[in-house]
Amino acid sequence: MRYKVLVDVYEALDATTKRLEKTDILADFFSRVETGLLPVVTIMALGKVFPVWSEKELGIGSKLLMKAIALAVGVTTLEVEDQIRDQGDIGSATEILYKKRSQTTFFSKPLTIEMVYTNLRKLANISGNKAQSRKIDIILELLSLASPQEAKYITRTVLEELRVGVGEGTIRDSISQAFGVDKKLLERAHMLTNDLGMVAKVAHAEGEKGLQSLSLKPGKPVKPMLAQLADGIKETVLEMGRIYCETKYDGIRVQIHRKDSQIMIFTRRLENISNALPDVIQYIEKALPPQDFIVEGEIIVTKQGKPISFQYILQRVRRKYDIEKVMESVPLTLYLFDVLYYQEPLIDAPLEIRRETLEKIAKTMDNQVELSKQVKVSGDNIEDAENLFKESIELGHEGIMLKDPQAPYIPGIRGKKMLKYKAEPESLDLVVVGGTYGKGKRAHGIGSYLLALNDDDGELKTIAHVATGLDENTLLELSNRMEELAIERRGRQIKVKPHIILEISYSEIVKSPEYESGYSLRFPVVKRIRDDLSIEDIDTVARVNSMFKRP
Ligand code: ATP
């Protein structure tokens, strides 16, 4: 099919901002395309030649493209740059340069959609010796056959900036309209396969029946199931009845596929990052059976047992060179938490079955592959969930996930079947004004610390008791310091001079008549002792007030 036909469609799409009109234009076009070409035109309608999950990318920078344009129209790259500055976009600039050029061109053969598609895909395979000039040659081959309008869209496609205002939703609606298939069915098929081209082809050739038979397959990532914020642990248990509580690790979410003997790793945006993680691929080869599967998990980096910043992991994943070097200095741990495919698709199975399967098939490997820590909670052991939350925060993780064990895996949806309960990102610096001696084995030391903040008049107002977050040695040291600061003792209670400042994480600020500030903290955990701060630096009732009021 002539590329000109697709270019006319692009122009028509560009001429309207109305989604319904765009849908009509595309539906009319799709119904005129033969089945075999449908996958190509659907992806090109999005301005791409590779799906997002492909390991391949065009990888052509605007500098290289400008060189090719300059050669094609016989001007300098500076002139191309000037034109782009005037027009604001490389495609329109190219079209104008084409129209201006003095030499007449003889189109030796008309450009076809297949040629443009194939040539552009070739670009991704070029590396090594003279890669740049070979890439320019391929682009030039297309540009030399192109009309001004065609050149406009070829250049835009090379940079993956088509600018005709079409997204996946519009494409789906157009396929539905063109082939008379149900929108919901299309959406489901797309969600499971993430291959609009294939979905279009099946819709055309096999109709709704064909779409129904599509399911997820190792090798093609699925959009991940997402979580809503939980109102609270108790509230969630009441609503779900039974929950699976898991540590919420703060790293990057990965979907790992094994197809035949190839292992692929995708991000939550479905990008293929397998090349950046050879170590994780090695772990997976050892930890999981040599069969096709899809599992999900979170990759984190720990330093001396504590998870370190999320940004650090991103850097590690984005890194394309010297991967071996970073591999040694930044060891990764993969926490697996779900399985979507093993011998067959499992997304319709309830979480409890999926977790059981995961536990059966995954071998854990110390600090390399672990299963997410999990406790099963119902009405009578809510404190297990609360303890897991505290433990997670103490260890430096983000909080916990609260999952409905009966729920299927629902791709791409932020639903109510999986919730997250996190510590507030902003911790508070509070001063210790008292404490309570422990009981039994801990009777000699102070087990719980009364914390206060400053009010407007510079007076201290209590806000919470904290009892978790410190190791035994630090607890002992703090107890000793408290003894020296003691100003009053009554029973197991001790009052101290306000001197020790602690940084406190918590899940929520709540109103409470129990403390002088009128507020209290849910699940407070000591992050660290702040000997670098003085009493003037601690947080204030006013700040807590404004944090509480924030939506
Ligand atoms: P956030 O910034 O809170 O991670 P998000 O939009 O990236 O939000 P959500 O779906 O809202 O993602 O929250 C769940 C995220 O928590 C998952 O995407 C995953 O990356 C991460 N996670 C960490 N541990 C787990 C676990 N045990 N089970 C499920 N998800 C987990």
UniProtKB/TrEMBL annotation:
It catalyses: ATP + (deoxyribonucleotide)n-3'-hydroxyl + 5'-phospho-(deoxyribonucleotide)m = (deoxyribonucleotide)n+m + AMP + diphosphate. Keywords: ATP-binding, Cell cycle, Cell division, DNA damage, DNA recombination, DNA repair, DNA replication, Ligase, Magnesium, Metal-binding, Nucleotide-binding. GO terms for molecular function: ATP binding; DNA binding; DNA ligase (ATP) activity; metal ion binding. HAMAP family: DNA_ligase. One of its GO terms (biological process) is DNA biosynthetic process. This is DNA ligase. InterPro entries: ATP-dep_DNA_ligase, DNA_ligae_ATP-dep_bac/arc, DNA_ligase_ATP-dep, DNA_ligase_ATP-dep_C, DNA_ligase_ATP-dep_cent, DNA_ligase_ATP-dep_CS, DNA_ligase_ATP-dep_N, DNA_ligase_N_sf. It comes from Methanobacterium alkalithermotolerans.
